[in-house]
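User
New here, help please:
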Amino acid sequence: NRPADWPGRFDVSNWGFLSARINGKRVGGAVVAFRSPDLDMLEGRDDLAVLWDIRVAPDARGKGIGSALVAATEEWARERGARLLKVETQNINVPACHFYAGHGFVLDSVDPSAYADHPDEIQLLWIKDL
């Protein structure tokens, strides 16, 4: 499930790839999935975008980069007509849950059986109005 594998699994032609840099050094990035009919999380909707991936380098955390990436993701999605932004995390990633809730996402659904290979993990889907 590496980023380099995504084009082989999904149509990424409508996806956004965002990068965060400090003094020219890449310190983070976010990927937004949009209008990708083969991606179930988009529910076949044209008004929904998915924050597919967000990463911040460990030495750059706590500096607002994640927040800036979320804001850029929201702007990118709004500019393309999305009214909602969805993101997935798991119950074991408590910092991510706090992060998304702190950025206005609301817990939309909980699926305890989403990960057959990881029965102790529960899928959490968060949604935010744009």
The chain has a mean pLDDT of 95. The chain is about 20% helix and 35% strand. The radius of gyration is 15 Å.
